[in-house]
Amino acid sequence: MRLRIGTFNVENLLTRQRFGGEGRSGGKDRGRDGGRNEGKSGDTAAAMSLFHFPHADQREAVEQSLAVALEDDKRQMTALAMAEGAADIWCLQEVDSLASLQAFFANYVHRLSDHRFGHFALQGGNDRRGIEVAFAARRDLIAPHGVTVTSHADATFADLDVHDRALAEMGISPGDRVFNRDCLMVELSWQRRNLTLFLCHLKSMSNGADDGRSATLPVRRAEALAITRLVKRHFGQGWREANWVVAGDLNGFRYGLGADARREDEGPSGIEPLFDQFAIDPLETLPEHERWTHFRRWWSESEGRLREQHMPLDHVLMSPGLARANPKPRLDIIRRGQPYRVPLDPRAADRSIAALSSTADRYPRVGWDRPKASDHCPVVVEIDLPETKNSESG
Length: 394
Known about the structure:
Blueprint: E1 2-13, H1 45-48, H2 56-85, E2 89-95, H3 98-112, E3 117-122, E4 132-138, E5 147-150, H4 165-169, E6 183-189, E7 194-201, H5 212-235, E8 244-249, E9 255-257, E10 263-265, E11 294-300, E12 305-311, E13 314-318, H6 320-325, E14 330-333, H7 353-357, E15 379-384
Parallel strand pairs: 1-2, 7-8
Antiparallel strand pairs: 1-15, 2-4, 3-4, 5-6, 6-7, 8-13, 9-10, 11-12, 14-15
């Protein structure tokens, strides 16, 4: 049985918009302290700053109209990237509600894709902005009774035995919830085959702040370790041979790509428990310059210079048994929805505006910074799903 499994951080698929003096709600991860990392401006703030509105209701009406127009452009790009990825199963991040998920598929994805999707799943997690992990699959892929969804949003550090001194020093107690969003477990059952997906979106690194990586590492490490605990508890001693996948935005990496695709060792990231003698990463089969799903350019105060980096944040990790059945899986990273400011080839020496803007490797109407599909690239892995060992039907 051939399956294409995709993960995609669709970047703020929100139905809840806040307008007025503080701008549109759409900043990045607020984290456990509730403080935004990108300030309070959103997509509409730049244009709105150019105009003066004598009345608040007039400003709000214009901002709403602008937000709708921007969102429509963006979601066409998002749907194009998903249509190109042609996944049978989508594991999505940054979706705020089941209603927005269903509306997006009905009005954007289904107008572009060769497939029709259903089996939608999203449960409330722990993110203060309400950006959740979500699931969708082809309607004809599986019967409704073959899909079981379990949330782990209420799991605590103590429940999964992942609390440590570093977390205690951050003021996090054993009884606090371990996942910043959720680890959504989706079990799929066919007559002779089973597949279990663990959908996740781990704690961010504070959007490039110099101290963000180390400051958030203990939380991310606990989340990663908690996922390994869930897998092992669910499958028992046979966890290595079972058909399972961990998919999502891990928000961490050990090796990034600097200027000229130079490999940069950033040190521990927190996600190591998912890789160290646990899951297999198909991304490792690609040439090094292709192992990225996110691009960031920022000013480093500590180094006093402008930095840029291509990063492998998004993954579809396979169980050891599933990886042995698929030693050379097809892996597609969809990049045509990235804005023109992003160099799609990290090896390219010319990063000038003239060079980047004159390429022809993007979707129609993609802009320099926006519109775009997302700030992440979808990752799709194509596998052969083996029959489940010792199954009742086998």
